[in-house]
Design brief:
By secondary structure, the chain is of the alpha/beta class. The chain has a 6-stranded mixed sheet with strand order 3-4-2-1-5-6, sandwiched between helices. Helix 1 crosses helix 7, helix 3 packs across helix 4 and helix 5 crosses helix 7. The longest helix has 32 residues. The two termini are 37 Å apart.
């Protein structure tokens, strides 16, 4: 009898979208807890009121260890800071669903390098199916980069082709550029008194507000330059395929992988996927 044909493992197909309409959906994500991402969502929604021409919405999710079920309670200290600023944070945050969220979200924004690495591990398999269609890894961005983008624009630079290492000279400059991509966890280690923790959270909230304003400015510029008949969602989807903003040190690898033609064999794997 003839031997059976070889079987290759491949990721399951992406599910159909659960959302419709012209709104750009931004998903804020962090690992294990709901603190910075919840404050970022609140800041984004509050600041978006000043951009009535933009049709945007924001969601919140938490990266959990594999197999851990259920929702996560939003940190009570973050809710205290939010209430002082007039923002009502949700009580819980759902778990990040890499299959559904990468279909429904136009941008997935993480807080730091660890979040970025965790999320990339979850979504890169879907790009091996067809990176030209999904571009999952390219829609994962570090939120802090948009504050840098806003700073570049305010100095008169265009900012669209800005790489994360621009202007960094030597080892010290490169390190500073990487740190500028981080929204550090103000409650890491759970150290200090409650008052000290709240002060650190206030500082983080100010940083998140600058990042979200930079992101909204970025979306406004994309919307302003959109061709007649094109939606912001379409323009943004095209933009993330070429922009290095928020991709970190692996920007060239990720952008190159998305530009490569579809591979063959073993589920269509391509270098760098």
């Amino acid at each position: 009898a003839a031997p059976p044909p070889p079987a290759y493992r491949a990721p399951p197909p992406m599910p159909p979208p659960q959302r419709h309409g012209p709104q750009v959906r931004v998903l804020f994500v962090e690992s294990f807890s709901a603190c910075r991402a919840a404050l970022a969502q609140a800041a984004f929604l509050r600041l978006a009121q000043a951009y009535p021409m933009l049709h945007v919405e924001a969601d919140l999710a938490v990266l959990l260890p594999f197999g851990e079920p259920g929702d996560v309670e939003v940190d009570a200290r973050a809710r205290m800071v939010g209430e002082r600023l007039g923002a009502q944070l949700p009580l819980t945050a759902r778990a990040f669903d890499e299959r559904q969220d990468m279909v429904d979200a136009d941008l997935v924004l993480v807080m730091d390098e660890m979040d970025h690495a965790e999320a990339l591990q979850l979504v890169c398999a879907y790009d091996r199916l067809d990176a030209s269609e999904h571009a999952c890894a390219l829609r994962l961005r570090r939120l802090a980069a948009y504050a840098r983008l806003r700073s570049a624009v305010s100095r008169g630079a265009d900012g669209e082709g800005e790489g994360e290492g621009d202007g960094a000279g030597g080892e010290g400059g490169a390190q500073a550029a990487l740190e500028a991509l981080e929204v550090p966890d103000p409650l890491y280690g759970n150290t200090g008194t409650l008052g000290e923790q709240l002060r650190r959270l206030n500082g983080t909230t100010s940083q998140l507000a600058r990042c979200c304003r930079g992101l909204l400015d970025h979306l406004y510029r994309l919307n302003y330059r959109a061709a007649p008949g094109s939606s912001l969602r379409e323009v943004l989807a095209e933009h993330v395929r070429t922009s290095p903003t928020g991709l970190g040190p692996q920007a060239a690898k990720l952008l190159g992988s998305a530009a490569a033609p579809a591979g063959s064999g073993r589920g269509g794997e391509r270098p760098g996927g």
